[in-house]
Amino acid sequence: MKSTLRDMAVGETAIIAGYTKGVTACREKLLSMGLTRGTVITVERIAPMGDPMEIQVKGFALSLRKDEASALLVERRIES
């Protein structure tokens, strides 16, 4: 099931599935940070007001604003 990164909770892991339509300005920035299709990400922290959120991607921590997280489509991994 696809959802946005913004909908994820702390500790959840997902695979990047793509980008929402109409986010070209934000998309280029996120792609240059390594957020490409198929990349595994984990939500590490979310600020008390929900903005920004910190994710773990390719061995480094990255903080994203709400609008950037809303642009990113993900498929949640089910941990067993």
Task: Provide a quick synopsis of the model.
With 80 residues, this protein is of the alpha+beta class.
Describe the structure.
- The mean pLDDT is 89.
- The two termini are 17 Å apart.
- Helices cover 19% and strands 40% of the residues.
- Strands 1-6-2-3-4-5 form a six-stranded antiparallel beta sheet.
- The chain has one domain: SH3 type barrels.
What does the overall shape look like?
globular
Portion in helices: 10-25%
Strand content: 35-45%
The CATH class is identified as Mainly Beta
Q: What is the distance, rounded to the nearest whole angstrom, between the alpha carbons of the first and last residues? A: 17 Å
The overall number of domains is 1
**Coarse structural class:** alpha+beta
Q: Low-confidence parts lasting 5 or more residues at pLDDT below 50?
A: none
- This entry's quaternary arrangement is single chain
* Overall strand count: 6
CATH topology: SH3 type barrels
Radius of gyration: 11 Å
CATH superfamily: Ferrous iron transport protein A (FeoA)
Instruction: Describe the sheet with the most strands.
Output: 6 strands, antiparallel
Total of helices: 2
At CATH's second level, what is the architecture? Roll
Q: Return the string of H and E elements.
A: EEHEEEHE
- Strand arrangement, largest sheet? 1-6-2-3-4-5
Mean pLDDT: 89
